[in-house]
Amino acid sequence: MHTLLNIFHLGIKEIRSLGRDKLMLAIIGFAFSGQVYVIATGLPQSLNKAPIAIVDEDRSPLSERIANAFYPPHFLAPAIIDQYAADPGMDAGLYTFVLDIPPNFQRNVLAGRGPTVQLNVDATRIAQAFIGNNYVQTIVNGEVTAFVQGHRMPASWPVELEIRTLFNPNLNSVWFGAVIELLNSITALSIILTGAALIREREHGTIEHLLVMPLTPFEIMLGKVWSMGLIVVAVATASMLIVVKGWLGVPLQGSLVLFVASMTLYLFTTTSLGILLGTLARSMPQLGLLLLIILLPLQMLSGGLTPRESMPELLQHIMLAAPSTHFISLAQAILYRGASFDVIWPQFLALLAIGGVFFLFALSRFRKAIGSMA
97, 118, 149 — which closes off a domain? Predict the structure, then answer.
């Protein structure tokens, strides 16, 4: 009971200390509100108001038909320019796409000669360039086919593919981006808060006060772990209900209680990692550099931004040792597909095992660090 009281009061001390750090509070508030909204809505998977110019050297009904096929919301109204204005316009960043329709285009199409159309793309606008290339090709091919056939009847195929889109029927990228960004914020803030809490003790000189008290390294470390984890759980749950579900309108399919329980277990791992980094770093700038090395692989290779199946097989096996891989897998199963515990229990056990290893290693390192200070 004495140990539990020490851990409880040490955690309350950490919460009060964080409450006086206005900059860290502002970072927490933005990470779980504005940042989730900006990332979810700022990276659309569909083309939106892309600037396009058309060099019409044919001046035929077909070329005019193609020009009229580009309209909002995917494209801005196309600018009709001559070939001498194409390169300066792209150099100035006025157009993302410049479509050059050659002379005698309609005549060659009707004669079956297979003419080519040149599409210049400003690849510095990577999101629009990657998506818009297929949009332009589809529009041009569709207009040429309809012009030649004289109607827009779809071609008949011997096999009809019936598509059923599950869990996100409208293919709304906001539903995916909001949840993934929230998970990334949970990972980043839990590591930052615990690492910063330890460094704050060292910079303010209060770590020496703790050393002269009848406290063990286990109690000091666990006090930081549970307090910072509790803050992240509370803020992340509020963000899930207010920002993701309320503000962005993302339908959450599964049990919020099961997700919070999984998040709590995950935070046991990441807060231990934060303590470990806090023992390695001597200042906040050093902690920031260590975070770059740790956070980028955790966020990019854990299956949140890209499917794990598309990664090299060796990398897939290596990332099984990362807690974020299992957390993102079970979070997607719960929040997107409404999975219950009988589905996500392997990831749950994996988090428990990885968390235990991280905690014991961080505690060993923390004891050595405390001993060197003493």
Answer: 149
Amino acid at 209: H
What type of residue sits at position 122?
A: D
Q: Count the Cβ atoms, other than its own, within 10 Å of residue 96.
A: 24
CB atoms within 10 A of CB 292: 8
DSSP 290-326: HHHHHHHHHHHSSSSSS-GGGS-HHHHHHGGGSHHHH
Residues 127 and 253 in one domain: no
Q: Is the overall model pTM greater than 0.90, yes or no?
A: no
Rg of the chain over all Cα atoms, to the nearest angstrom: 28
Does residue 235 sit in helix, strand or coil?
Answer: helix
- Same structural domain for residues 89 and 121? yes
What's the DSSP call for residue 75?
A: B
Residue from 192, 184, 168, 171 nearest 39 by CA = 184
Give pLDDT tens digits for 1-47.
Answer: 778 888 888 889 888 888 888 888 898 999 999 889 888 887 666 67
Are 38 and 56 found together in one domain? no
Instruction: State which residues of the chain have pLDDT below 50.
Output: none
